[in-house]
Amino acid sequence: MTRAIARQTSRRASRWVAAGAAALAGALVLAGCGRTDGPTGGGDNGGGEAIDDSPASGTVQVWAMGNEGEVLDELAAQFEEENPDVTIEVTAVPWESAHDRIATAIAGGETPDVTMVGTTWVGEFAATGAFEPTPDGLVDESSFFEGSWDTTVVDDVAYGVPWYVDTRVLYYRTDLAEQAGLEPPTTWDEYKSFTQALQSAGAQWGVSLPPGGFDSWQYITPLAWQQGGDILNEDGAEFTFDTPEWEEAFSFYTSFFEEGIAEPRRLEGGEIEQAFINGEVGAFYSGPFHVSLLLEQGGEEFADKFGVAMVPGADSRTSFTGGGNLAVFEDTDNRDASWKFVRWLSQPETQIQWYDISTDLPSVQAAWEDPTFAEDPYLSVFGDQLQDSKAPPAIPTWAQVSAVIDQELEKATRGETTPADAVATIQQQATSIGTGQ
């Protein structure tokens, strides 16, 4: 077990849930408050005036959530050493209150200079005019994972930069797979056979999948992406849920419940680890934080009983990507220093140091060439998966639309609706909600 992996904590797991919960709870907060003016700034991609290379100076106020807020001071101190005339003031904000706190700050005109922001919040907050577009030439967008960079883009304009990334891969019991004589699956057909074989080898359930409910859209949506389906059409004006790709995604997903392969209950944090360790569940999908949780709870000997693999797929093996971005507010009192700090945090060498401090995965691809990631049997798989990962569109109404997917998926896995009726309902309700753009 590597030192960095060993330092990961369950706070990483809570971030997926807390970020989504805040987005859902506060989805309508900005509808009647804050600014109404649109994006500003010039340049080829809508960005503002370029930032020079002179040392940063003055004070920069930064809001960061969860574990990041608690440990960012350690990294910021290095930036202050390199820029003696600057002071970085970090405020740690709990994930549970972060969305509403940002919304309230925007409405009251009391924003910090820089904020960390959940990837699914960008469209909502950018629509208020509160975020400044990323300055032209600040960073090279091609240096980031494509799916990660796309989380910053709203109507072809980037707002901020990706700070760290998360993606999901397949966790599986290697001992059960070896007993069944199978390698990790690469296709949908192999995936179903693989999970059934894990049951034959001793697991009660071949795989644990959310049977709908909160944030289950993150599990069903990649199945549509893998077939070439999407959430919006090419011009981003219309939803595309009522399509063969989405219906097939629902059919394939629900078949695991119909055939008794998937655990019918929703296993929450703490439950899934134990079910996997004791062999009740043979496989599940999750992010990198689960590596350390399994090693801690299962003990050193369990390291030889599980592995991770890229998600199996159809035409592609696309997975969901999430993480955290950094954005600068239009009302910042120290624009140049704010963007210089963001740029510095985006450098590969900085991101490698940041992983050692926080265990956040780098958003910059070059950082993954470091042995910390390239030679780690777990992290290297996440690096491969990030080459084929995607996020939902950055639209202000995504929290509302995704809640409809959650609801219909739960009805489908219970047999209360058909895949065809589910996607038709999602299409109708999403169209009624609109994109908010």
Give a quick summary of the entry:
This protein is 43% helix and 14% strand. With 437 residues, it is of the alpha/beta class. Strand 1 (58-65), helix 3 (66-82) and strand 2 (86-93) form a beta-alpha-beta unit.
Q: Can you describe what's shown?
A:
This protein is α/β, with parallel strands linked by helices and about 425 residues long. It has 2 domains: about 190 residues, D-Maltodextrin-Binding Protein, domain 2, CATH 3.40.190; about 190 residues, D-Maltodextrin-Binding Protein, domain 2 (3-Layer(aba) Sandwich), CATH 3.40.190.10. The protein contains 18 helices and 12 strands. Strands 1, 2, 3, 6, 10, 11 and 12 form a 7-stranded mixed beta sheet that branches. Helix 3 links the parallel strand 1 and strand 2. Helix 2 crosses helix 4, helix 3 packs across helix 14 and helix 17 packs antiparallel against helix 18. The termini are far apart. The N terminus is likely disordered.
Q: What key attributes describe this structure?
A:
alpha/beta; disordered N terminus; 14% strand; 7-stranded mixed β-sheet; 18 helices; D-Maltodextrin-Binding Protein, domain 2; 437 residues
